[in-house]
Every structure is written in structure tokens, then in C-alpha cells.
Amino acid sequence: MLDRKTRRNLVAYSFIAPNFIGFAVFTLGPVIFAFVLAFSQWNGNGAVTFVGLDNFVKMGSDTRFWSALKNTVVYAVSAVPFTMASALGMALLLNSRIRGKEVFRAVAFFPYVASIVACTAVWNIIFSPGAGLVNVILNSLGVENLPKWAADKHWAMFTVVTFSIWKDMGYYMVIYLAGLQGISQELYEAASLDGADARQKFMYITWPQLKPTTFFIIIMLTINSFKIYDRVMLITGGGPGTETLVLVYHIYDMAFSNSRFGYASALAVVLFVLVLTVTIIQFKGEKNYANS
Question: Quick check: pTM over 0.85?
Fold first, then answer.
């Protein structure tokens, strides 16, 4: 007979086991296999051949890799601050006393929960080089040489970044709203008694109180920016040329279009190290800022 403590532990483990087994089979196992493949050569059919650091050495002469790395960094540097600023601006507006703010909150949040395929289809129609709404408006304003947006190498990344800002800002707006509603109103009342204006209240009360929320949003936005794939694939297909080719798209292309699973795994390891490094730097920067 099992004692009472052992039975309780077995019951607890029985609840944990399904989730742990699913994690081990579908997440942990593939991750470990990917790290092994990063030092191997495999086309998906034959035997796995160990090649050491050859996959990483090949990256040095892979021009598509360097283009993808550059585009990923450009996308992250562009999308993160503008998405954060848009979300904060909307949160401040919708946290004030305006009529129908619940409706506006729902409307702003809707793009985030809507189908990515439907959203990109609508976006491509709006930014169509021919009869798209944006170009129709620009043409009515007398603008010549209308951009081709996703089909133009000078505007393709701008189109993707703009879409991402519109798609994501509603979600992060909700997070900022939660942070704003957690700020004590007594702080604003005390500031008003001292004669502080709206700008001073924001600089010395709102922004410092939102530091933890902002740090969380920056981390999430940065990680998601380096993992961008579906939006690029649906809007530009990585083109024109390699102007919007990003790392995850290049990894997918190497693995499933070229059957170079070893090289794709090496690229995935590089992406993992890159994201980990950026995250550690952000955590250290936040810690130093909090202690200063």
C-alpha cells in the first residue's frame, strides 16, 4: 500500500504528465534534434552525417543569410518603437474620459485577433499599386510616381512594418491600459495641487509607473520581431528580390524548399543565440536603469 503522501504526489504528477509529455514530444525533442542537426548534414531521407562547424562556416559566404539578417534587424528596429509608441498613445487616449471608448478599444483590438490571412489580403488590396485606396488618395492629392508598395524594393519593408504596427498595437494597447489603470489617482491629484500640467504628469508619474509594463512590451515585441515570418510570406513573399527576406523565412526556405535541414538548423541556432543575446542585454539594461 502506498502512503498518503505518495498517493497525493502521484495524483499531482498525473495532472502534470500530459502537458509535460506533450512538451517533451513536440517542443523539447525537436529543439534538441535541431541543435544536433546544426552540426550535421541531412536531406530528410538518408542518414544524418556529422559535419562539425561546416554549416556555420557556409553562412559567411551565404549572401541570402546576410540579407535576411540585415532585414530582420531593420524590421525589429523599425517595428518595435513605433508599435510601442502607437500602443501607448492609444492607451492614453482611451484611458481618458471620452464617449464610446469601449467601442474604440474593441475596434483597436480586433486586428490582433482577426485572421492573419484575411488581414494581409485586405492590406494588399488597400496598398495595391493600381487601384488601391492609398494610391487613389495620393493620386487625388496630386502625388506623382505613386509607390508600388509591396512590389517596390524601396517600399516593401515599409509596407510590412506598417502592417505589423496596425496588427499588433491593439494587443499592446490593452497591456498599457492595464498598466495605466494600476496607477494610483492620488499621485495625479497631488501633482495637480502642486500645479503640474499634463506633460509633467506624464513625464514624472505616468511614464515612471509604466516602466515594468514598457519593459515587458519591449521584450515581447523584440522576440516576436526576430521571429517574423507569416506576414512577410503573405505580403511580399520575401521579395522583391531579397528586400524583405528575413531569417525565419530563410530558415524555412532552406529546410522545406531545398531539403537542407542541417544548414537550416544551424541558421535556427544563430537566430536563437541572437534573440538570447538581445534579451540578456535588455534585461541587464533594465536592471542597471532600475538601480540608477
Answer: yes
Tell me the pLDDT of the chain (292 aa) as tens digits. Answer: 667 888 888 888 889 999 999 999 999 999 999 999 999 999 988 899 999 999 999 999 999 999 999 999 999 999 999 999 999 999 999 888 788 788 888 888 999 999 999 999 999 999 998 889 999 999 999 988 899 999 999 999 999 999 999 999 999 999 999 999 999 999 999 999 988 998 999 999 999 999 999 999 999 999 999 999 999 999 999 999 999 999 999 999 999 999 999 999 999 999 999 999 999 998 888 877 666 5
- Span between the terminal Cα atoms of the chain, in Å: 59
Going by their DSSP bridges, the two strands 49-50 and 40-41 should be labelled as: antiparallel
DSSP 51-85: -TTHHHHHGGG-HHHHHHHHHHHHHHHHHHHHHHH
